[in-house]
Every structure is written in C-alpha cells, then in structure tokens.
Amino acid sequence: MGRHNKYDLLEKLVSAVNDSGWNVAYLEDIKQHPFYLQVYRDNESCRVKIYIWHLTHGGGKARPKDEYRIQITGVDKFEPLQGGKTLILGYWKEADVFAGFDVRKHLGKLGASPSMQIREDALRKAYVNGFEPCDKGNKEVAIAFRPDFFVDYLQSLEPLHDFGQSTKDISVLSEVAQNPEINIANIQIQNVARKTTVVSVSKKLRDASFRKRVLTAYSFHCAVCGVQLKLVEAAHIIPVNHDNGTDETRNGLALCALHHKAYDQALITIAENYSVQISRSRVSELQSQRMSDGLAKFSQDLRPIIILPPAISDRPHAEYIRIANSARGWK
Ligand SMILES: [Zn+2]
C-alpha cells in the first residue's frame, strides 16, 4: 500500500479519542493506511486497526438518494487485527459524524468498486443525539456516532454490531439513543448481552452529554485557572454516586486535570459566592507531611473567582456547592 491522503481523517480520529478523554499512540508509520493505533487511558488500553474513508452522498442511478456511503479504495480485502479491534469507518465532514461498519460482515474478497452505505437519517440522528444504529437488513447494523462517543463505540464494538441479529432490539437501542434518561426497567429486551449493552450505552450517552454541556458552558476553560489547551475535564460538583448526584450542567464544573484532582481531594473548592478557596487544614496537613512544595506557585495560579458560564441556568447551583463541600469534608 502506498502513501495515502488521509491526514485530515487521522487528525479527526486522534481528536475524537482525546475528546472522549483517552490518548493515542501510533503503532505503525502513519503514512500507511489502514492506521494502527493504541488507544489508552490509565491502565486501560486497546490496539486498533482503522480503515477509514470520507462519507459521500448517494448519487448514482441505482442508489437511493437518502444514503451516504464510503467507496472502498486501496484495499483488496479487510484483514482483522489479531489481539485487537478492527474498525471500518466513514466520516461525514459537514456534520462531524462517524459511521461504523461491522468488519465481520465484510471478510471475503471485495468485489469490483466496493462500497458501504448508511442511511442519511441515521447520520442526522447521531448528529443530534450522539449515537444512532442503522438497520441494514441481512442481520447487519451500522452505527452512526459523534466523535465524543468514539471510545465508547470502540469499547462496545462487537456487542453493538450484534444488534444486527434482532430488528426489534435495534429499534429499542434507537429509542434509548434518543432518550438516554429511560428507566432501565422499561427496556424490553430478552437477550441478556444486548440488554446489558443498551444499559451501558444509555449511561455512556448521559456521561458524554454531561461532558459536552459542561465543557461548552465554560468554553473549554478551567473554571479556576482559565487554562484551555484541551486539558479540561467535566467534574461533578456533588460527587457522582452521592444520593443527591445529578448530571445537570449546574452540577458541573470544567476543571483542568490538575485542578480536578485538587478539587476531588478537597485541596481547593468554590464557595457559594463563586470565590476559589484553598483549604487551610489540608495545607497544614500537607506541610506536616513535608508534601507542600509548589504551594506558592499553585496558589498564585488560582483565580480569585471562577469563570462563569454565560447562561445563568448553567452556573454552579448554590445548594449543590453546599452539599458538595459538606460531602468532601470541607472545613
Ligand atoms: Zn486549572
């Protein structure tokens, strides 16, 4: 395989992985397509082989107008990666949406002018909701998804494509994508593996939506130091598993990785008047442990008051700040 012209797609893949809170290492020369990447975070890691093309609108006399497709070029046959995952992806640039196809359904030698299709309506729904399955018939399902759902798609790859085995279950998956707040008890799926996948997808969609809303509300700045640099995460004010925990934007705070950790360890907090505070008791504890080097610099970098989202309804809720500070043992 010779040189390719896919650097824009590779860039998009890497930023999708980063937007999902994960990192990328290149396993092979990036001048070669397909791409071999290692996608990792903390102790979790996955080797991935990625075939990717731009999605283009249907056209052609024999093709319906309401579909997009990838035209497979430069590949004679798909070869799955041993000990890793293999993706066949399309990318719709105008809407910033991916389509994932099931490599297990495309293992034979490819015919002349091979292509894969996905309905336009599935891509549009994914643009709005983050994710949408597309029933292609013949027990195959394609998955349309937004970049911030990329790692979630990768992690649930086979279970998601296994929905192709039941047209009825695909429609349940689609309902949940449109309403991830659905009560788990109301999910009408008999197959245990597929039911587990639906529950996990609904949670991941809620997480992705929280992350997107919070980061957007703060324009991707850390609320307490102002840094952007794509180092910012969505933190919960009231911790996730607390009885009063909620995924509302006003229970979120955009924080860089350093200040996220400092917030969770109650070294810093925000007060109800939005001032940024350092815990005196935590500082003296650290001083007695001879663990307080860098404190002066750390304190200097903190803003006196947090950056506030423009919309009042997105700003940290006073009651949530109170509950959170008490839950973290703030003194
Ligand atoms: Zn920060």
Q: Helical proportion?
A: 25-40%
Q: Give the low-confidence spans.
A: none
Query: What are the bound molecules?
Result: zinc ion
Total number of β-strand segments? 14
Strand composition percent:
15-25%
Trace the largest sheet across and list its strands: 1-2-3-6-7-10-9
What is the structural class? alpha+beta
How would you portray this structure in words?
By secondary structure, the chain is of the alpha+beta class. It folds into two domains: 7-167, 3-Layer(aba) Sandwich (Trna Endonuclease, Chain: A, domain 1), CATH 3.40.1350; 232-327, no CATH class. Helices cover 32% and strands 23% of the residues. It has ten helices and 14 strands. It has helices at residues 7-19, 120-129, 150-155, 157-161, 167-178, 192-217, 257-264, 280-288, 295-300, 318-327, and strands spanning 23-26, 35-41, 44-54, 56-57, 67-71, 85-92, 97-101, 115-119, 131-137, 140-145, 232-236, 252-256, 268-270, 276-278. A seven-stranded mixed beta sheet has the order 1-2-3-6-7-10-9, sandwiched between helices. A three-stranded antiparallel beta sheet has the order 4-5-8. Strands 11-12 form a two-stranded antiparallel sheet. Strand 13 (268-270) and strand 14 form a beta hairpin. Helix 5 runs parallel beside helix 6. The longest helix is centred in the middle third of the chain and has 26 residues, at 192-217. The protein is elongated and about 70 Å long. The protein starts with 6 loop residues before the first helix and ends with a helix. The mean pLDDT is 93. The site of zinc ion (ZN) has 8 residues, from strand 12 and helix 7.
